[in-house]
Amino acid sequence: MLLEVAISTINQGLYNIRLQEGVEYLIVHQVTDGREREYQKYTECSFFESSVRYMQSAESGLSVSRNLALSLSQADYIWIMDDDTQLNLTAMRSIRAMLSKHQPDILTLEHSKEPCVYGVHLSPTTIVKGHSYVSALSVSSIDMIVSSKLVIRFDESFGLGARYVSGEEYIFLLDALNKGLRAVKSEVIGSIHIGPSSGAFFYRSDLSIESKFVMFDRAHLKLSWLWSLAFIIKKSLLLFKHSRLGPALSLYLKHYLLSWRK
What is the mean pLDDT of the chain? Predict the structure, then answer.
């Protein structure tokens, strides 16, 4: 069972990458600052292992990068990864066992924000549970291992660098569930990402909040207003703490009143 870790990075983010032994890598590097030769030379010196494939792209957008990685992978499964994340290598045996035993279309793991996770908090289990529309909300892209046989792709209107700055993972998972594909989850900690994720600060801007509403529109169509309202209720304390509950409710009313009038 060949597993390839597909890292997406852009410009100087390349310098964040720290490779780990015994792992097959595909690095998709979006270059928009005109420094192609500099980066190419760096990779030739730093990523000379045969287990690393490096691809430059002139396009931008995280979902665009993920889709390019899915199309280029030569493995049975592709583990979606960011340039500032480290793998929990002690989990690799469990992960490979789950993939071999269950052969899912998508397997999602957990990740830790603590640097001391290596060798701890790891159950050598191969038990998985099926995903639902609700559980898919808690998935980050770095938790996703995807079969190379999948024909679905990330919606390139969503994600960092796109029109809407988040929501691509949720939409991807719901597209899979709606097509009857097998998406399962495990409590095994697969990676370590220190600090908050990019989606943790969704309340900071109107665009970030609006992106959540559009995500639910894309995923749930006529019931999107209900999912968006449930999301605001769930995040109400966080929004209130940062003086963003009022603006979020105003954006909600504006978004759905306009859509209902059309």
Answer: 91
